[in-house]
């Protein structure tokens, strides 16, 4: 019998107002969530903040729309006036910036196409108002009695966060550890700064190395100069393909974006070789180590820019979002990039920073627990006849590449993925583990990753073929191992597999 209690549909994970995940306990719930089936969505009070507009934001937007007489319009609450201006410019002449006290918002006619376009922009660039900022504004306006009680750091939270990040970047001055409202905003700011700088040199081509997280792919699709300036190299180990690209387009290549390791296949490229190729041709290498965390891999010496989500691992309770950008100080463009990025980043809301500063001291203990649990879970899955493939940082295909940047032999991170020999739905519906998005939490989380990230692809023959060309099974499961006893996690998996 599993030690885990199944969570009902829509329950926040953790059960707190600002949780970044929520329970999707069956494949019917997953499909209903993606298809916006009212029978499912009515149970979802919240979800990952960039994908599900937080109820505090919805309540505040509705109140402001009534107060400002915006009947027939949609109102989006942005993280800053600059973000609101960016969204309005992206939407065009039918959108306008609205100032409401200290808040910045964008209004436009309530039309499905405009709504989809606006939400997609804010999701991709990490531009939504913080749920804590919305909560505080609702309290200020008398619409909530008080903010939910939580542990906050009482000193200078930004300084405290940087103090804990410093061991991962010993050559960096604390002020150069640039904090963002979420990981995607960190990626957006770094990419836009690098792209704008390289464009002045006639360099506009960007290379996506391996399958990346969906919003990173969206940034490349939306913000490269032309479709021809976005190039996808499917396999992270295909150094020959990269060499051919640089031979043909070297003077026009602006940079490479790589996750190290990738999400969700946990593949690691030969980062030193990749860095040498980029440097030789004047390209910028932007590296995202979020899957295992900046504490597990040393990537800055090989990169022009390092971007990372601090939602993962440094916030083990799973109730905030934050991001980080670090510029390699040895890079010739370091000063210029630092300045440009600072102008583009969305600063975290103060209470989010205070919450992160209260949690980040637990990161070493969290990682130690995950590093003990993950190999045991991998061993179980690898031996089980119902499991076809297991992907993790020490998988044979890229283990050597990972180990050359790992800070310690056991620094394996907390994420693995696997595929089944049997039907996904039967296994997923029987499984008692918490089921939801995100990773790097103290709580174990599992999700049918491709269904949540690329539902448009898993539901069409052309999409399935595109996934197959990149080595992705539509039924792949991503497992974020938590700090619960490994035997309990394994028992839950075994129960569902049998």
Automatic annotation (TrEMBL):
Cofactor requirements of the protein: pyridoxal 5'-phosphate
Gene Ontology biological-process annotations: transsulfuration
GO molecular function, one term: cystathionine gamma-synthase activity
InterPro entries to which the protein is assigned, alphabetical: Cys/Met-Metab_PyrdxlP-dep_enz (IPR000277), PyrdxlP-dep_Trfase (IPR015424), PyrdxlP-dep_Trfase_major (IPR015421), PyrdxlP-dep_Trfase_small (IPR015422), Trans-sulfuration_enzymes (IPR051750)
Coiled-coil spans in chain: none
Annotated keywords: Pyridoxal phosphate, Transferase
Domain of life of the native organism: Bacteria
Keyword Transferase in record: yes
Family label: Belongs to the trans-sulfuration enzymes family.
Name by which UniProt lists this protein: PLP-dependent transferase
Record organism: Horticoccus luteus
Source species taxonomy: Bacteria, Pseudomonadati, Verrucomicrobiota, Opitutia, Opitutales
């Amino acid at each position: 019998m599993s030690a885990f209690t199944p969570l009902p549909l829509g329950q926040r994970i953790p059960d707190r107002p600002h949780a970044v995940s929520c329970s999707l306990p069956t494949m019917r719930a997953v499909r209903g969530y993606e298809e916006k089936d009212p029978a499912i969505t009515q149970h979802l009070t919240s979800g990952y903040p960039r994908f599900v507009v937080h109820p505090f934001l919805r309540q505040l937007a509705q109140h402001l729309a009534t107060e400002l007489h915006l009947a027939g319009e949609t109102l989006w609450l942005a993280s800053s006036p600059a973000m609101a201006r960016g969204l309005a410019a992206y939407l065009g002449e039918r959108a306008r910036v609205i100032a409401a006290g200290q808040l910045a918002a964008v209004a436009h006619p309530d039309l499905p196409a405009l709504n989809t376009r606006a939400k997609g922009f804010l999701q991709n660039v990490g531009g939504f108002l913080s749920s804590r900022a919305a909560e505080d504004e609702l309290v200020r306006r008398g619409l909530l009695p008080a903010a939910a009680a939580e542990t906050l750091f009482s000193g200078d939270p930004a300084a405290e966060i940087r103090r804990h990040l410093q061991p991962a970047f010993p050559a960096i001055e604390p002020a150069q550890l640039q904090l963002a409202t979420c990981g995607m905003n960190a990626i957006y700011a770094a990419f836009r700064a690098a792209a704008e700088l390289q464009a002045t040199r006639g360099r506009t081509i960007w290379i996506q190395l391996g399958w990346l997280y969906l919003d990173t792919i969206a940034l490349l699709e939306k913000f490269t100069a032309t479709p021809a300036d976005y190039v996808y190299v499917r396999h992270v180990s295909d150094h020959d393909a990269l060499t051919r690209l640089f031979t043909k387009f070297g003077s026009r290549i602006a940079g490479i974006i790589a996750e190290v390791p990738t999400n969700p296949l946990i593949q690691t490229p030969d980062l030193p070789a990749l860095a040498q190729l980029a440097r030789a041709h004047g390209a910028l290498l932007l590296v995202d180590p979020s899957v295992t965390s900046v504490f597990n891999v040393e990537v800055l010496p090989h990169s022009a820019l390092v971007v990372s989500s601090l939602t993962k691992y440094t916030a083990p309770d799973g109730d905030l979002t934050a991001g980080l950008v670090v510029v390699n100080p040895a890079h010739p463009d370091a000063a210029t990039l630092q300045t440009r990025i600072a102008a583009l980043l969305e600063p975290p809301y103060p209470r989010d920073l205070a919450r992160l500063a209260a949690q980040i001291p637990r990161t070493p203990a969290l990682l130690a627990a995950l590093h003990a649990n993950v190999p045991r879970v991998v061993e179980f899955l690898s031996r089980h006849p119902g499991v076809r493939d297991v992907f993790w940082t020490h998988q044979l295909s890229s283990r050597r590449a990972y180990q050359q940047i790992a800070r310690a032999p056991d620094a394996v991170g907390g994420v693995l993925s696997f595929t089944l020999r049997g039907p996904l739905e039967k296994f997923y519906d029987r499984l008692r583990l918490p089921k939801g998005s995100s990773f790097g939490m103290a709580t174990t989380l599992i999700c049918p990753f491709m269904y949540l990230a690329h539902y448009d692809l898993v539901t069409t023959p052309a999409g399935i073929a595109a996934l197959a060309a990149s080595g992705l099974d539509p039924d792949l499961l991503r497992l974020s191992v938590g700090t619960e006893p490994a035997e309990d996690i394994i028992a839950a998996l075994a129960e569902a597999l049998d």
